[in-house]
Structure formats: C-alpha cells, structure tokens
Specification:
The structure is a homodimer of 423-residue chains. With 423 residues, chain A is of the alpha/beta class. Chain A folds into two domains: 66-313, Type I PLP-dependent aspartate aminotransferase-like (Major domain) (Aspartate Aminotransferase, domain 2), CATH 3.40.640.10; 315-417, Aspartate Aminotransferase, domain 1. The first copy, chain A, is 39% helix and 13% strand. In chain A, the strands form four sheets. A seven-stranded mixed beta sheet of chain A has the order 2-10-9-8-5-3-4, with helices on both faces. Chain A has a three-stranded antiparallel beta sheet with strand order 11-14-13, covered by helices on one side. The interface between A and B is large, with 105 and 104 residues. Chains A, B: InterPro entries: Aminotrans_V_dom, Aminotrans_V_PyrdxlP_BS, PyrdxlP-dep_Trfase, PyrdxlP-dep_Trfase_major, PyrdxlP-dep_Trfase_small, SP_NH2Trfase/AEP_transaminase. Chains A, B: This is Alanine--glyoxylate aminotransferase.
C-alpha cells in the first residue's frame, strides 16, 4: 500500500488500537502483502499495569519480603558470567543447608515445583520400570500422571485425603510391587498432612528402591534431613516458606540416585531438565560449564536472597516459628468452633492448615468474602479435598502471630456475614 | 545430644558457618538422631548479594529498562486470582500483536525458550512420526535432539553455519521425507542469519506438514507475520528484544496445529507443558480455569510490561530501529576493517550481528578485554560457530546508536591492546 491507502490503513490501525473498531473492519489477510500489519495494537496494553496488594495466607505463593522484592528489580547479568556462577554456587550451598545434605548433585530447576517433579521422575525412571506412588492427595495423583506419560509401570498406594502412611503401609507396598522408585509427599498441602519420614529411607534401600520426596509445601517449615533420613531425591518450590517468586525449584540427588541417572540406557525424555546437562550448568560435574539454556537470572537472584534469609534466621528457628504460629492458629480456630481437617495432631502440617468447611456454609462465599473485605487470600481445597476444606498458609515471612490474628478476625467476620444454610 | 555436647556442637556449627573449619570435623551422620543439624549454615550466604552493572550487548539476555525492573519488584498475587487472569489475558493480546496472529491458542510457557521448543515438539509430534529439521546452527541441533528423545523419526536438512534455506531447498526435503512437521529457525543467533519465511507456510501445507518456527532471537526485531506467512507454531523468549528477564516464552499455535494436538492418540510426555492443561490455565478453551501449576507470577508482570512497551513503540518502529542500528553497526565494523560473517547482506539478522574473529586474534581475549575494561558483554560463537565468530546483540531497549558507538569504541580498543598473532 502506498500514499492514501497507507494513510487510511494507519488511521484504521490507530482506531483499532483505541478500541473504537473491530478487527473485522480491517482488510482481509489474503489481499495484503507481508509488509502490512494485520493485528492492531491492543488498547488494554496502553493502560498501566495494575496489581493489588494482598496478604497471601493461602497455600502459596506467599508474600515476598522487601529484600527479595529488591532482588527482583536488579539489572540482569549474563547466565554464563562468572558472577552468575558464583551466585549459583551460593544457591547450591543454601539448598544443601536447607535440605541438610552434602549431595554434590544439588541445584535449582528453571521452572515451578511441578517442573522439578518431572525432572525427578524423567531422570531417574526409564520406560517400563516399576514405580510406586503414595497417593493421599493431589501431588501423588500428579506424580502418577507424569510417570504414566514416560511409560513407567505405575503402582499406587492409596489413602484417603487427610491421612498419612506408616512404615508398615510402605513396606507392604515395597514388598508387593518391588519398585525402582517410591514417591511420597512430605507436605501434602491439599490435605494439610505432614508425612513422617524417619525410617522410610532405610526401608526403601532394603528393597533396592530410591526414595523420592516432594517437600514443596513443607521445606523450611518442617524438619527434614535429607542425608540422615536417606532421601534419594528431594525437591521443593521457591514460593512457599522461602518467600521467593515462583519460577525456580531446588532439587538434590543422593549418590545412589546419581548413579542410577548416569547409568541410564536411554536419554531422559526432556533436554530442558536433563540432569547430565543441568549438572554441568550448575558446576556439579567438575567439567567446564557449557551453555545449556538461559537460566532465569532474576529468579536466581531472588532465590539466593530467600535462601540467605533462611540461613540468617537458621533452620531451627524457622521450624520452631512455624510450629508455634500454627499451634496459635489451631487454638484460635478451635475457639471459633472450627474443626481441623487432619484428625491426628502429630501429622498436622504447620505451613498449611486445613479446616473442615463449617457446616451449612458455602466455602467459596467465605474465601470471596475474606478476599473482598480483608484483602486476605485463604483458599478452598484441591483435588480430592475440593469442597471439603479451607486452607490457611503461614509460610516463612508470613508466619507471624499478627497474621494469625488478622486471619482469625477475618474468619470470624466471614462466619457472621456469610449465609449459613444458604446451600 | 544434650547439655555440654549440644553446646560444643553449636560452637562447631558457628565456626563452620564462619568458614573457619571444614565439614569433616563435624560428627558423622550415623551417630546422630534426626533432630540434630549436620550441615552448617554457609558463611557466604551471610554476605550481601553482589551483582555488577553491565551493558549486555551479547545475544541475550539484554538489559531491562526501569519500567520492567519495577515490575520485578512488585508484591505477589495468587496465580489463580482474577487480576492475574486479567494480566495473562493482556499478555495473550500482546503476544497476538507481536506475532501478528489471531490464534486463540496463544500463551506464555513458564520456562526459557528451550522449554517452549520442547512444548512445541512435545505437543505436536507423536512417537514414530517423521519430523524434518533445518540445521544451520545450534538451534536445529537442539530441535533434533529433543525430537529424538520423544521417539520421532528425525530427518535433517543441513546447511553450513551462516547460510539460509531457499524455498527450493525446503521443497526438496518435504518431498523426500514427507514429515508431519518442519522446524526452521528465523533468527539463527549462533550464526547471525535471518531466515526468509515468505512462502514456507504454503509449501509446508501443500505437503500436509506443520511449519514450526523458532523466533527466540528475532521476534520484535525482524518482521514476522504468523497468520499471513502460514506459520503453525511460533515461539520466542522473553530476554531478547522484549528486554524481559529470562523465564517465560511466548508461544502460539494455528488452528491446524491445534487440531493435531487435540487429536493425539497419546498424552504428551510432559504434564508441565501439556497444551491441554496450559490452554485451560490461559483461558484458551472457554472452560473454567483449574489449577495446573503455579505460574511465575512476577515474570508474568515483567512480560506484560515488555509487551506493553513494544505495543507503545509499535512493531513497525521497532523493526525499523533494529534495521537502522544494525546497519550503523555494520558500517562502523567495516570501517574498523572487521569482516561480517554472513556474506549475504539480505539475510543478516539485525538483532545479533556475527563478525569473523579478526585474523591473528584470540576471540576469548577480545571478549574478556571488553568485559573487563568496558563492562560490555559481547560473546564468542555457539555450537558450530564456536571459535569462528564474535557476536554483538542490539535488542529492544539496547538497540541505540549510542550503544553502537560504545561497542565500536570498545572493539577498536581491544584490537589495539589484545595480542595479535599470539596464538
């Protein structure tokens, strides 16, 4: 188009950008040369970004403290600069501390906790191998799904949502199915259960099986000792107790797991999470680092800061804080006549508390009311616990008595204002 | 441990934290109960985070402008909040504009460009299907690797690094191999080639084949018209022309690609990038959104801002700017007696310029000198171009005449000070 035609087209584009006309007014694609614009600029992107302030007391993401927010605003450096490798080395040390492990193969996945779950299964399991998955909530379901996709022979150990596994339960499963890998969730955030881990490692190793533990919702808030407890693969997410924006997921592999990975017959299905490549990128293999993918530089800055804050506070203090504030919340809930969903006090997860939806109430009306009137997020259930529970998270920076008081006040208000027996 | 023993242990831990003793001094794991700390706090995480300021004129990541840095420091909201869905909808509109497409199945992957490459191949290709990969640099090699991992029958169309494909080359390959998908790189950042795309879509469709284009290093800097050019799958990265921190990757699928995805016989190997789940999470399927994974909330804020800045500038102006500044750079390089690596002027990539390593110089000495003396990143080659080229990136916010002057000045200085004929 030249001259007048071009001028008319520009006017149309400008009008479309202001939202005054619809796309169908524009000339159709087939009659245009490839130097002409077809899709106009969306008007909504001419408006400023709008993000409300919220107190995030759901199962994650949690709020980020100012120090971590500041890290998110730093200028970028290159993913292969020596200063970046130094920061990645610091992240590794921080993960080794948080996981209580000396594993050399320790790093952060460039994705969410689900990406780390895939990294764990993709690297350690080959087509046709038997895996045993403990299912008592949504995370076991997801681990089963992923294992099936890669052609594993998936066996399930099932329990109702809200219950945990005994060593006897697990031993029965191991003896029956003889899996190469056993998956269990430490912090079952959909049900609010903290699975006891002592003894599971020895049991799995007795049956020549790797122990894979999901600690996305528990790490930093509940004691875990990767080496002492004989955990072979452990991963977590950044956006829970660490208070780091979602997008990275710490993971570590024992020597036993490393050996299985590096003696595979086939390549893992994914290049992106291939532990051969990632071990090199993270300096875990003593070879010069070569380019694999462009790591999320800013997220690594934030993760480094989240781990540094945990180090400064100390694991012991963090565990104690989560325990104390969860107890304070539980007492307050009971005073309001609200029932805790997990019956066995010993296995209640201190980072995410589940309560039974109060009788006669619509759970969604409660969460919406609290969001609208108090700018606080608490959430409903997930997977098998949907419709049964409400979930309140107290994680890292958010685990304070003041926040417990705020959420109890909001809940009390919601119970008074939401319509009992409406449904 | 109790009393004195516990006190001694604490002192040891403190000493280890200060880096005064080595881990081997600490009691061994087997003699301890699980309530005791084994791995001490790493001293280096007690130090402040240190990130140098750099002008990033390599092939990416590029520098982030203040508006995008500010988005990185915003407080988090939930990945399932309505305000987040609004921002995701805005991102979709921004991608549709940047890609020049009306495709409904348009979204951002929660990972790097490589993760998007996997998402494209994992969803559209099934085990045993024939794919044809155009290899003229590192990206074709990676696409071949990923395709092999998922059991595709991989055929390759090879060209030396620095060359592009003609329609005749491609038609010969399509006729011979009859693939279900053809992969080609638009911005071959390892060689500096901008692959012409006109006519490729029609050609692929004539052979009943999907056209997959990698535009990680070119999108926003080189004209591309997804719908008009008949591209079936197109993806890019956030950290190039968009100047957004790495960690998200825009992707879009044509109706033809969508149909192939949703008539698969088997599930894609990955749940994390399963387009059935992601289509729902991104509101592309008209069903109520359900939880899939926790998206990288902060990265989405930044991506929204990067797309908004492109919208404000307009694609036409962005393309012109990249073209003008690249030409200005090329002229300056020639004045310094430096040879451009890509012989054919018509296919030189304006976002990443490759130059032949000046005769008698060690490329690594040049990049190190420029980094050390001028705080500017330029890089060596990648994959097949390693040792042959130096790469200078001018992307988005970084594509300015002032930056061209800075890098030319730095290069001139390096050529005077680095040791010619040392190697």
């Amino acid at each position: 188009m030249q001259g007048a035609a071009k001028g008319t087209f520009s006017l149309l584009l400008q009008a479309a950008a202001r939202g005054r006309i619809y796309l169908s007014v524009l000339p159709c694609a087939r009659s245009m040369s490839s130097s002409e614009m077809l899709i106009p600029a969306p008007a909504v992107l001419m408006q400023p970004l709008s993000v409300p302030e919220r107190l995030m007391l759901g199962p994650g993401p949690s709020n980020t403290p100012p120090r971590i927010q500041a890290a998110g605003a730093l200028q970028l450096i290159g993913h292969m600069h020596p200063e970046m490798f130094q920061i990645m080395d610091e992240i590794k040390l921080g993960i080794q501390y948080a996981f209580q492990t000396r594993n050399k193969l320790t790093l952060a996945i460039s994705g969410s906790g689900h990406c780390a779950m895939e990294a764990a299964l993709f690297n350690t399991v080959e087509h046709g191998e038997v895996v045993l998955i403990a299912v008592n909530g949504v995370w076991g379901e997801r681990a089963s799904d992923i294992s099936e996709r890669i052609g594993a022979d998936v066996r399930r150990l099932e329990k109702p949502s809200g219950e945990s596994y005994t060593l006897k339960d697990v031993e029965k499963g191991l003896a029956e199915h003889k899996p190469c890998l056993f998956f269990i969730t430490h912090g079952e955030s959909s049900s609010g259960v903290a699975q006891p881990l002592d003894g599971l490692g020895d049991l799995c190793h007795k049956y020549n099986c790797l122990l894979l533990v999901d600690s996305v919702a528990s790490l930093g808030g509940v004691p875990i000792f990767m080496d002492q407890q004989g955990i072979d693969i452990l991963y977590t997410g950044s956006q829970k107790v660490l208070n780091v924006p979602p997008g990275t997921a710490p993971i570590s592999f024992s020597e036993r797991a490393r050996k299985k990975i590096f003696s595979r017959k086939t390549k893992p299905p994914s290049l992106y999470v291939d532990m051969g490549w990632l071990a090199n990128y993270w300096g875990c293999d003593d070879k010069p680092r070569v380019y694999h993918h462009t790591g999320p530089v800013t997220n690594f800055f934030s993760l480094r800061e989240g781990l540094a804050m945990l180090v400064e506070q100390s694991l012991e203090k963090s565990w104690q804080l989560h325990k104390d504030n969860a107890l304070y919340l539980h007492q307050g809930l009971e005073k309001l006549g609200i029932k805790l969903f997990v019956k066995d006090q010993a296995v209640r997860l201190p980072t995410v508390t589940t309560i039974s939806v109060p009788e006669g109430y619509d759970w969604m009306e409660i969460t919406s009311y609290i969001m609208k009137k108090h700018s606080i997020e608490i959430t409903g259930g997930l997977g098998p616990s949907t419709g049964k529970v409400l979930r309140i998270g107290l994680m890292g920076y958010n685990s304070t008595r003041a926040n417990v008081d705020r959420v109890l006040h909001a809940l009390k208000d919601a119970l008074q204002h939401c319509h009992k027996n409406k449904i």
